[in-house]
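Q: Hi! First time asking for a complex rather than a single chain. Here are the components, and I think there are two in total. Is that enough to go on?
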Amino acid sequence: MISLSEIDTTVKRATKAVGFSWGIAEEVGKGISLLEMFGLPGLKNLNQYYKIYKDKKFQNISLISKSNISKISYCPITSGINFLDQIFTLKEFSEIDFENLAFPILFIPFLSRSSEIIGKKIFFKVDEREFLLNFNQSIFSNYLKEQIVIEKANKIKIIFLENENTFNENDWKELYSLSKETFVDESEELKKTAAGAGFTDND
Amino acid sequence: MQVQLRDPKVVMKLSKLGSFHQSKLSFLRSFLKEFKDWKYKRDLFELDENGYGRAVYSLTKNNRTYSLVCFANQINDEERSDRVIATKWDTAFALHDGIPTKKDLDRLNEDVPKQEIGRLSYKELTLSRANKSIRIFNHVVESLSQGIQPNKDKLMEVGYLYRTTAVYGSGKFGLADRFRIKNRDEICGPFRLEMMLVYLVREFTFDQVNHIAKQKNPRKAVELDKDICRNLGIGNSTGLGMAPFIINHPTLLNNWILARETSLKKIREIENVKDHEAELFKKLLKKSLKNITSWNTDSEFQKKKIFGLLKDMEKLINFINKGFNFKDKYSFNKLYLWCEINLKDECIEYIVSLMMEPYDKIINPLIKQMSVDEAKYFNIPTQKNIENLRHILEKNYSEIIKIDFSKKENNQNFWFISKNKEEPRLADRYMNRGAELEQPLAIARDIKILYERISNKKNSLSIGRFLMENNDLRHVVRRAFISENFPYAEIQDNIIGYKLMPIDMLRLKLSFFGAVKFDPRSEKWLRICMFQGAPLLTDLKSFDDGWIYNSLN
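A: Yes, that's all I need. Here is the structure of the assembled complex.
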């Protein structure tokens, strides 16, 4: 088995070899090892992308807006880098759309890291495939079983999810009530002495 | 009294870093302390009469076992080379996580002797190989088989039976990634598994010579005397491969140096040095003279340094003998300040290491802070602005940005990865081909370019927006922001300049390993010795932590 450290190093060098800067290569190395750790086929997608990268033209996006449309497929690496770099302004949009993004799986690590930076989960929809990026701690997806290369996504949707509970107030109350069964019902004496503090704090 | 940490712009100069010595913080010493109550066992020893075959040694505590798997092979003398281009070695080793099964051993038998072209699994933690010091090895075997102990003087000229030529870890060649084991308390210090491998290899070398001698002359042979064993370490040949590590791991480098600097600061802040602390310092200072005089090298560069060190040590001893009073308040601070004025770096740094010896209570907590989760500091804070970046560059790289890179001499060298061995190399930019494939290690030059590039940018421009047009400098923007929180992360020198002494970079790292007897063979590689004087596995439960000063005495 190839280790993540080997993946990181080799991807970094390969990324430099196809023409990206060393700084971007460092980001891609980290990103692909992250995808592989989460069980997503990052290396396979990257390899396919680099096979055609020099011969085919890709759109390099600089400033990302709410809606990003291009006739030429967007490069997932420059798009990802810029997304990460602009995350503090982009988070103000609740949703961001891309049309025509090449190799969208390669965009995921940048979103995953963005999720950690802003402290919000990010929902990522690649045509019919869905991904939930959880603060760079895990990725849930209905794509995990496929392990295939996705060369292009027609429609991409990115949604910043508000930090909300997944349960309702009643669920919480019921569980809280159960947790109280571990508490001790204090006698009057204990109420006076067990906390250790004084009765007045006027000093 | 508050003492300031030493200025990174002074400490992080390569000539200073290249004068560092082993200390209580060194990884091989902290490894021994951590593993002193682990149970040692020789699980397998299947060597033929010539010492070829395989062996397994293990360290166990609670439910955790680490096993060194050793393979000793026959090679021809002309095949023996310490260079990384070698393809065969006298011995090859892997540290296995747990107890290897027969299947594991057969698998490792196939791949470990191949080293870089073999494949390991996530069950292996480190990988290494070693060559015999032929003249010493043969002399020891011959003597033991005749029933006599080897000539100590001869042994001490070299100091080891074997020298390793590489020790790999952290995911190389399929080995376990660091993340798989990072939460284990016993290996929280840097390079602890590499140290374990080398230490267990040392034990194997003694068993192997005893075994061969016995096979050679069963009636007459004796075992190698335990005291002689203790005074033998494991040699190591180290080339440029190690140098980029300290550039590529800035937060880790910071934590190593910061631990050293913090311990010095705390020692200088001690108001009343206790008698036994002063006595230990003085005792080890005197013992050091013997250690230093037994430091052999043919390198003129190193000879000069050793000569200077000896002279300075004598000067210091003289100064102490002439009435320096450890009962004075802040006496270690006074002594340190005297050293700074009167001694050269080689000796100052030796004394810094020596001052740590009486102070376990200061050093031990710092050992735990010498690792780092590098991923935590990888993100560039793109919400910050050019003003922030400019301030960092002017504060942390003030010497670097004064370097004139329009001068050829300041661009003399470039670092590259050899196609042959996939290892880092250094070449002359104006004499050799390949500079277009330069590795991103010319930090000083690229920081200077960054500083010039931002000179006409608005202070309020965010880093995110700046990077849109300047991603060619992304690697140094990241480093600059790392240096904001990690003051000792950056070497304050130009490592592509004509004055570069790469062995200074190697020595810095090796001193933290705990290596001694630095013996430069050129400006690009050196030999060292590890664990010389260290307790044997059987002594581990109770040993004197100052063992390193006992060697050869």
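A: Chain B has a mean pLDDT of 94. Let me know if you'd like any chain examined more closely.
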